[in-house]
Each structure stands twice: as C-alpha cells, then as structure tokens.
Amino acid sequence: MTDKILAAAASSGFGAAPPRDRARALVAMADALAAAADELVPLAESETGLAEGRLRGEIKRTTVQLRLFADVAAAGEFLDVRIDDADPDFVLGPRPDLRRYRVPLGPVLNFAASNFPFAFSVAGGDTASALAAGCPVVVKAHPGHPRLSERTAAVARAAIASTGLPADALGLIHGQAEGVAALRDDRIAAATFTGSQAGGRALARIAAERPRPIPFYGELGSLNPVVVTPGALAERAEQIAAGFAASVTASAGQLCTKPGLLFTPGTFAGRAAGAFAAAGTHRLLHSGIADGYARRHAEVLGTPGVEVVVAGELTGLTASPTLVETDLDTLARHRGTLLEEAFGPLSIVVRYTPGEPLAEHLADLIEGSLAAGLHIGAGEDTPWLRDVITTLNDRAGRLLFDGWPTGVAVTPAMQHGGPWPATTNPTITSVGTAAIDRFLRPVTYQDCPATLLPAPLRDDNPWQVPQRRSPAGESAHWGDRA
C-alpha cells in the first residue's frame, strides 16, 4: 500500500499546476475542514484527550494556515523569478540571457506530530507549505490519532479533487516501518518531522545516508529559556508568576515552546506554586509521552541541589504540574540531567545573583531553542541586559519580550525554528510564509528559446507572477548607489 501511495503522489502532476490553482485547492481544504469540525473534534478528543475548546481553536489555526499559504501561492513571489537580459556590453564580457526561478523539490514525506493533531498533522503547516510550493505530500500518520488522520485525509483529498487537481497530491500511510521505508524511497525528495530528539536524529541519519540524500527538516525539542530581570520582578512579580504557570501547564506542558527554564534574581518559585498546584490534572497524549515524562520527572526531582516546590504526580496517562527550583551552580554541575527537555508539565526555576554575568552562564549552559524570552523593567537598558539579549539571540529562533513562548502566531514574520538541537536546520521555519522555502530549489535557463521557457520565465508572463529584471547596460552603473 505504501508503494502505491508513493507512486500516486509522484505521478500526480501536482507540481505542474499553476500557483493559483494550488491556491484554490488550499482554500477548498480550509473550507472543508471547517465544515467538518463537528465530526473531527469529537474524534480528536477521543484519541488525544485534548479539550474541545483547544481542538476547535486548533482547527481554526489550521484553516488560517491553509488560507495564508493559498495567498502565498497565488501571489507567486515565492518563485523568486529573476531575469537578466542578454547584454553584449556587460562589464565582464558579453552576458547571456539568464532566467532563474524556483521549482518544487518533489514529493514530501511529513511525519505528523502528536501534540497538534490538526495544526502539525495531516493538513497542518508542513502539508500546507509543501502543497503551496507544488510538492505532493505523503503524511506518515501519528499513532496517537490514527482514525482522526484517516478522516482528515479523506476530507482534504476530496477538497483537492473538487478543484480539479489530483486527490493523490495528498496521501496517508501508517506505521513506523512504512514511514522508514518511505523515507528511504527514491521518489521522496524531502521530509519534515516534529517529535523527539532521538526519533528525529534517527530519521535524519536515514535521510542523509540514502544513495541520494535529501533535506530533512526536523523539529526536535526545546528548553525555551526565559530570563526575568530584577527590574521586572520588582514591578510585576505576581503577574510574571501567573503567566509562567499558565505557559507551563497549558496542554499539560506538551508544547514544543513550553518554558523549561526560568532564570530569576533570587528565590521566585514559591510565588508561582499556588498557580501550579491549582492547574489540576490533565491527560497526556499517549503512553510514549507518559513514559518519557515519568523518566524525566524522576531524574529532575532526584537531582541533588534541586528543591521541589510542587511535586506533581503521574498516574497512568494523567499528570499534575511539577515545579522545582535550583541555582546556577547546580544547573552547571548536573547539566547532563537538568538540561534535557521534560515534555510535560514540569519546569525549573534557576536563581541567579543580580549583577553577576548571567550572559556568560547562559552561553555555557544553553543550547539552541525554538524561542527564548526576557521580562524587563520599564525603560530598562543596561550593558548587562544587552549581553543577555545577544546571548539569547545566538541560541533561539524567536526572542520574546515581556511574554511567554507558548502561542505561535501564524503570520509572515514568524520564525519557528532555531539552532541545534531545536531543529536539524537553523535557517528554516515550520510556521509562517518562509516555511515554503524548504520545498523549492532554483533553476536557471540560459539562452533558452522563448517558446521553450517555463511560464514564469516568459516575457508575456502568463502566470502574472512578479519578475525581477536586470536590463542590459545596468552593470556599467553598479556601485553608483554606494
């Protein structure tokens, strides 16, 4: 079955469709998912344990992503068309006619995530951005919500077909063995993944060791450190404590942007203890996450020098929040234990002494994260603060001020990626319009007869996409604007 699905995707001809046709297919998918919400949400509730309100919000986010990439496709800017007119007087010798644009890589394999059964699953952002680029998608369903995956795929495929494009532009497979086999298949041109560091590394190795290696875009986990300055703490300690607790306990801490480390001037965790304890219990997504969380919970709470503020509990798949506090020396001494992500409702408050070079400690301790944050006082601007900002800038894809990293806006300027080990490629994002860049490669046509040029490169521009042109004679004036 996997081979049949891969063959159908590879032969679908989806990449040859004009961008506006792809845009219409993405809008049709958005409309169909919204219309099917009353059927899909109860199915998602039963398989994931996530609340109805959270799931309905996630369907809305998923439809917004699809519409956003529909606009990206329709605009055509992602093709990055560049035309250099033939120039016999070019300063380095005669220049040929050169026309460059970006083409789809080919079929993309998307390993769906468990914690976002809509937004990072069958019809989520990776699928939307790949389809917008013109790449057919084969989704490896997550075992945590297989029935939802099947139904979502059926809804999406019917929507694509309703616009006249091939339904086989979107395929679905199940099972770890099937996913690995697909990743090794020469018809797959790129892969995306959201999940554990161990799983992501194993898959990235397979992608790199193929006879024809392919790009593997993995999101592998993140600590997302947040720093509170003395000025911020003096101004609004209770507000920060409440926001911290809400960010850590949302969705039982099963968010890749959960703040796993909070650096505060002096003892702070007690201020947030009440909010952590009041958050109650929540079902974890599946037994794999529960087992991993149980291990990390025991390791963190059993580390010498770690003070348990709210112990939390795990019973079967049900967890209550845990909050601990320690200092910089303990964090450094036990970095092998404390600096591994705990995927669940657990976070570590780390005390520092005001005035000490926190930036140096962060540079030594913190690896790449999807996000990092700072809570600062009104008008605060010191060399100490700027050093901290510089260090966090080097280690995160998104830097927040006076906010919390949970909650990722679906918008053009969003960056959802970061240095290793947050992702396998620090230059990409899986949220926002730049996500489409992952699935395109540039090709230049040199001195091609006009009748043989692809539509985006033709002078009559039948697709009406933006074209950036360098006219003959321009090179004689390069540097004049300096």
What is the number of helical segments per DSSP (H or I, 4+ residues)?
15
Class by alpha and beta content = alpha/beta
Q: Count up the domains.
A: 2
Helix content: 25-40%
For the record, the CATH class of the largest domain is Alpha Beta
CATH superfamily of the largest domain: Aldehyde Dehydrogenase, Chain A, domain 1
Average pLDDT for all residues: 96
The tally of strands reads 19
- Characterize the overall form: globular
**Strands of the largest sheet, in order across it?**
11-14-15-9-8-16-17
Organism: Paractinoplanes globisporus
Region (Disordered): 455-482
Domain Aldehyde dehydrogenase: 7-265
Keywords: Oxidoreductase
What does this molecule look like?
By secondary structure, this protein is an alpha/beta fold. The protein folds into 2 domains: 2-220 and 427-440, Aldehyde Dehydrogenase, Chain A, domain 1; 226-401, Aldehyde Dehydrogenase, Chain A, domain 2 (3-Layer(aba) Sandwich), CATH 3.40.309. 39% of the residues lie in helices and 18% in strands. It has 15 helices and 19 strands. Helix 8 links the parallel strand 6 (190-194) and strand 7. The chain is globular, with a radius of gyration of 25 Å. Residues 455-482 are annotated as: Disordered. Keywords: Oxidoreductase. Residues 7-265 form the Aldehyde dehydrogenase domain.
